[in-house]
Structure formats: structure tokens, C-alpha cells
Amino acid sequence: TTRTPEFLGLDLPAELVPESSTIADVVIGVLDTGVWPERNSFDDNGLGPVPAFWKGECVAAKDFDPTKACNRKLIGARFFSKGYESSMGPIDESHESRSPRDADGHGTHTSTTAAGSAVTNASLLGYAEGTARGMALRARISVYKVCWAGGCFSSDILAAMDAAVNDGCHVLSLSLGGGAADYYRDSVAIGAFNAMEKGVLVSCSAGNAGPGTATLSNLAPWITTVGAGTLDRDFPAYVVLGNGKNYTGVSLYSGKLLPSTPIALVYAGNATNSSNGNLCMPGTLLPEKVAGKVVLCERGINARVQKGMVVKDAGGAGMILANTATNSEELVADAHLLPATLIGEKAGNAVKAYSISDPNPTATIIFGGTKVGVSPSPVVAAFSSRGPNSVTPEILKPDLIAPGVNILAGWTGAVGPTGLPTDSRRVEFNIISGTSMSCPHVSGLAALLKEEHPDWSPAAIKSALMTTAYVKYQNGDGILDVATGQEATPFDLGAGHVDPRKAMDPGLVYDLTAQDYLEFLCALNYTSLQIAAMSKDRNFSCDSRKNYAVSKLNYPSFSVAFATAIASADESASATVTHERTVTNVGSSATYKATATAKVDGGEVKIAVEPAVLSFTETGEKKSYIVKFTAPSLPSGSSGLGRLEWSDGKHTVASAIAFTWT
Amino acid sequence: AAAERASYIVHMAKTQMPPRFTEHSHWYDASLRSISDSADLLYTYDTVAHGFSALLTPAEARILARHPGVLSVLPDTPYYLH
After folding, report:
1. How many CA atoms are closer than 13 Å to the CA of A435, on its beta-carbon side?
2. Contact with chain B for residue A435, Cβ under 8 A
3. HSE-up (13 A, CA, CB side) for residue A651
4. Predicted-complex ipTM score
5. Residue A232 contacts residue A372 (beta carbons within 8 Å)
6. How does pLDDT run across A19-70, given as a tens digit for each residue?
7. Across the A/B interface, how many CB contacts are shorter than 8 Å?
């Protein structure tokens, strides 16, 4: 967050000074591993009194004095552990405390990303230096500790969501997820549904199970599901081989450097008696073969920073960590405890070939510090989970992407930047990666929109974020996916990369109410019991005479599923799928015209928008349209992409379109 | 039974609360006690869900699922940080 505000166009000087003004007071509830409240990111200087509507609390514990921990920035801190302790046994208080205090770092990182105060001269060991700040500087933070050393449990999460909504939070940020489940079985989906009905936007991480298809979590349409992209910042660390070849990796190492001239290099797979010794798992390296050398390890199974520790413990002088096909060319920086760098798969293969074939291979690592202005950026992170939506393929997920790679934000005082027990360093800020990091960016941006437009519903805020997201770089090329090196598809980045300045004034929004989502559940053929369990037993039942359809849900994007013709005689047949949408004018009077494009290998999809022109004379006016997608029969598994844009010349209200053939 | 118990989330039809109860939490507790004297109540939910979570044996969970006013009984499930 020393870079993301600028990267997102939020680097306005006025934004740096919180002021009490007519702007609405917004509270972000962060459900995570707790908080380290002494961090400067929770300084409340310049903020007005705690809002009168706030009903939350700052609980007392032996290591958590509420009179010191909470203030006008951190206005709530609670913990929920009954479900966890029921399943996992009593909390080990020698490692973590039964209190809101963050023993992990993750919760402090996400909460300060969402709404941390500005802290000048922030850095991690000199890397990423600048002013660190959350996305919503004026927003208040309330933390709900639901995740513990052994994980997080749905009974605790639901209790925390219950408390957070009752306390008065406007936005909930959940950088966690479970498996993909029907919505009536998913506690986060259930909690989010009822939070949404009370006007609370719920932002969740998409998951880090990419780049495989259908790997997303948090799939309900009333949740804002956030994937991850890179920033234009990098931390290069160069591998110099004895054969004169150089490769660029990344690292956050800070400490005693390797000699500038290459020293002995060994491939971990040749310095072990273990069949998976190449992974540098604990206890697998032979000290006599790695002592004083640079060790080439391969990524996978155990933590990247642990591999460095394994090399160090075996007497290695440095580590080159190489990606495999799983992570391809994605480079995630770590604050290793020995000189180390992560390189991509291609470079890894080259270094491996050299280390195996050369009789006396040598290497060194040169650290390049922090570089900004990296192009292209953003690119979709390989780890970011991908669509299609495995529960409801007709709803496109993820909804959008935001910065989630190498993000600097606040950190716990309980563990070092690697999180390893042997890491005795303590830092105020840490740099980590994940959709956990992109989610609170969007939570903070949603809070900014809520401040500016307090009357907007969660769906309207989500729509504004999605329809103004961008999918192309300034040169017109599409945003790339680091996993493939090709242009990303809507299954990778949803509506695109968030653009908060445009989201402030989207022109039109696709609004939705709880009633709309209930009709969506009817379209899924949920039973009345399932719907009642989801919606707090409201007086609602599906009308058997009504024609419910997922394609009628007023979603800001389109996922169009075509059935593949089974009989060969039908191969030339085409099918038409119709979607219905209603847009609400949130600007002044204007006339919008529709344009639609589609790109499908092996066939042409025709898109007809009726009407293709919509005129609005006043704010709040609603207009409906239908879109007919006509496509040939293609083999099952085929897919394509498209885009529908409504423009009045000033605003562009864009919807991503994904096509699938099943 | 205590060793067998695991946590479950029980979603209740609050509108079906018998009139003899004035507080839904009392009704939840009575529903739980009707199948077990010793089952521990973990939380009651009222804002983003109606119901409670409790430690139950699989058999108790099955019985509770058929209890009047119970909409669903879901096992407590793990979630993970991303």
C-alpha cells in the first residue's frame, strides 16, 4: 500500500488527511486473524469521534487493553473461538492468545490494507519504501478474530458476521474461503445474504487455487468475489551464473550479501538421499553437499521461506528457488533469512540444466532493491482462482481483480516477516501476496463509494466497481494472465481490474434487492426449506406459475451457457440464449447506446441488444433491456468471451461476457 | 457421547416459535435440551441467521433435524485464509 493508491489513481493529496466533514462515516468489519493495535496504521489522528450509531465493542483480554487498543480508527475488536476450540481443542496460549490480538500477521495486513491510516517512511527492510495507507483513509475498522493457528470454523465466522452487522459495519471483508458448496450449505454465503439485505457489502477473496479452471470459492452472487493482479512494482534479484548467463528473479532479502563473483552451485535434487529432495523439504539436504554453496531448490509442497531455512540449516550460502509448471513465470517475493531469489520456470530449467551438466557450476545472486513502473501491469496472478463458477455456471466469477501480489501493509509484532518460528526479526510492515490481499483493497474501495454514495445498495456499489473496471492496458492490448502469457479471459479477471475513480461516477448501475436474489434461488430450484434457512425464514415462497431464470438476475456481467447439440445432424444448428437486465441511472440525464463484441474460436456469436438505445431524464430512473446471444453448436468445453458496453460519451458502463458450451 | 460430539450450525424457523416462549434464545435452548441434557450451546445467531450452534453427536444432529422449527443442521466446516 505504499504503491497501490497511486496505482489505483487515489494518490490525491486531499485523501491523505482524514477530515470530519459531511462525508458519511463508514465502518469496515474485517474477519481475520485479529489485530496488532499498536501499529501506527491504527493512529486515529484527524478522525472525528466514534459514530453514534456504533454498537460494537473492544473486548478486554490479558494481552489486550481496550482503553489502549481501540481508538477512533480501530473502533471494535472481538474474537470468536468456540467453534474452533470445539473442533481443534483448546487454544495453545503459548502461541496465540484468546483475545483479538493477531499472532499471525494476516489480519493486521488485511485491515490496514482496507483502511489503515497513512504512515510515512514505511518499508519492509528498506523495500517498497513510501507512505503506507489503506484504501479508505477515513473509514473506521472493526476487527473480528475468527481464524486461529489451525484454521477458521464456520460457526465462529457466522457468529462474527452476526456481531459485525449488528455492531453497525457497512462493509465486511473476508479474506478466507472454504470449498465450493451449495449456497444453503455455505455459512459465509448465508451470512452474506442477510448482511446484504441489511445494506452491508460483503467482499471476499476468490482463492489462491489458480490457474486451474473452476477453482473459485465464495461464489454467491450477493458476494463481491475478488481475484488478484500484480502492481507495477518489482523487487528484482539477479542470478549470475558461472557460464556468464543472467536471470532475473525477485527477493526481499536484506542482510549479508553473497560474493559478487559466482560461488559453487548445487541442484538440491543432487544433494539429497530423498526422492523429493529437489523441493528442499526439512531434513532432506545433505550438509556435506550443500555447505557454502548456492542451492537450487524447486517450488512446491512446503513454504517458499521454509525452503530457504532448510538450505540455511544445512549450511548453504544461498538459494535459487525455481518455479515449476504450476506457477510458471509468476514471481512472488519473500523476506528470506539467507540470500535467495525466486525465478520463473524457464529460467529455472536453464539454471537446473547448467547445474547438472557443468562439472563445476557456480552462481551468485545480486539484489536490485525496489523498482516501480514495471510494464505491463497489472497482470493476473497465476495463483488467483479461476472460473467458471462451479456452483452456478450462469453467474460469472470472479467479479473483478485488484492488487494482490507483493503488497506492503501492517504486520504483527508476534512473528517475523517470514512467519517462521526461527525468524526473530520484527517489522512494522510486511510484503505478502494472495487474493487475501486483493480482497481488502476492494473492501476499502467499497467503503470509499459508500462514503460518497451512502444511499447506494451493496449491489449498486458492486456494479459500479465492476462496470468501470478495465480490461486493457493504455496501449489497447488486453490484460495478460501470467499463467499463460496470453490475454486474460473473464474467467480469470471477471469484469476486469478495479478503477475506483471511475467507479465513483459509473453513470448506470445494475441494482439488486434481496427479493431479486430470492427469485434467483427459485431459479436454482431450491426448496422452500433451503431458501428459508438461507434467508432467516422470511415469508417467501417460489411461485410455481412464475418463470424464474438465472439469466434474469440483474448481474453486472454475463455468463452465457449454450448446450452442445448431441446429434451430429444438429451440428449446424444454432441456439439463442436471452438475458434480461435493468439499469438505474445514477448520473444526470443522458442517452446511452449499446455496443457488443464477441470472440469465440470455431464460431461466431451474434449479440442483439433490444433496445440498443436508452434515454434517461432523471436520476434514479430505471430502464430494462434484453440481450439475445445466438451461437452455433460447438464441442462441449468450448468457451469464448465478449463485452457489452453502454456509453453516453462520458461514461462507459461495461459488462464482461463469458460463453461456455456444455 | 461427549467424545463423539462435533459442532453443528442449526438454522431455525423463528416464525414457528411456539407462543409459550418469549425469547427465541429460550426456544433454541429448549430445542437443544429436548434431544440432549448435556449438549453445549456455542452461539445463538439473530442478525445474519436465525438459529444456534452446538456440540452434538451425529445421532443427535439427525434427531434435531426432524425437530419442529428446525430448517437445517449443518456440520461446522473449516475455512482457510487466502
Report:
1. 38
2. yes
3. 24
4. 0.98
5. yes
6. 655 677 999 999 999 999 999 999 999 999 999 999 999 999 999 999 999 9
7. 140
